[in-house]
Amino acid sequence: MGLTSLSATIINPANTRLRQQVDFLVDSGAVYSVVDKKILKKIGIKPHGTKRFFLANGQVVERQIGGSVYEYADEKGYAPVIFGEKNDSNLLGTVTLEALGLVLDPLQRKLLKLPLVLGALTR
Hints:
Helices cover 10% and strands 50% of the residues. It is mainly beta. It has a single domain, classed as Beta Barrel (Cathepsin D, subunit A, domain 1).
């Protein structure tokens, strides 16, 4: 598992003028991104549901989930966002990285462009 940190912008997809710069821990072991719910509320992102998640210690927690546009290094992508509660870290997960066309190199602890491959249809 690789870890690094970065600053990225989250954007309300319903009103792209509403945005916030966020400092994230990038964790190659995290699937979804987590942002403090106070930040999400400030830019008008609303949850559309609740899901159960397992923590590293085996504990099960419920968190609200919604969607956000993410922007980093001139790349933009849409991905789910978990509404972080007290003591949750702002995490940038692999689903968001893939939406941005990026991948974390766990050895160098830096982001690389993800080779984007389309499958060919044959007839």
